[in-house]
Amino acid sequence: MHHRSGRGAGGRKGAELARINTTAWLLTLCGLGGAGEGCHRDVEQDRQAGERAGYRIARNGPRVEAEVVPVLTARYGWALASADGRWVRCDAPLEGDARLAGKK
Asked: 58: pLDDT confidence band, cut at 50, 70 and 90?
């Protein structure tokens, strides 16, 4: 499982930990985060590309809810992850960059 927003070296606690452990904040990716091969490693090694595709949501900056940041999926194209575990197809974000979701 991949957390779209990193847990940080010191970890997160309380309500914030519960928030990032919900369905919309977790993605199933192949491979391992720090070693080996696969998508998980690729997202961890190129964080900018991961953010553009919606696999990562930056911890710094304004607070964003995962349900409004689209993810570029192999199955659905651009889609939003819902809190109940469903994927809902959506339009591509501005310039194909999930970091620009909701901007006009």
From this structure: confident
The amino acid occupying position 30 is: C
| Residue 33 near residue 44, CB atoms below 8 Å | yes
Q: How many domains does the chain have?
A: 1
How many Cα atoms within 13 Å fall on the side-chain side of residue 67?
8
Mean pLDDT score of the chain: 85
- The answer to whether 96 touches 49, Cβ cutoff 8 Å, is no
Distances (CA, A) of 17 to 4, 28, 36, 61: 12, 18, 27, 18
Domain hosting 59: range is 2-100
Nearest in space to 71 (alpha carbons), one of 49, 57, 53, 89: 53
In sequence order, the 6+-apart residues with CB closer than 8 A to the CB of 67 are 24, 80, 81, 82, 83
Residue 43 · residue 29 · CB < 8 Å: yes
Taking Cα atoms as reference points, which of 23, 35, 39 lies closest to residue 83?
23
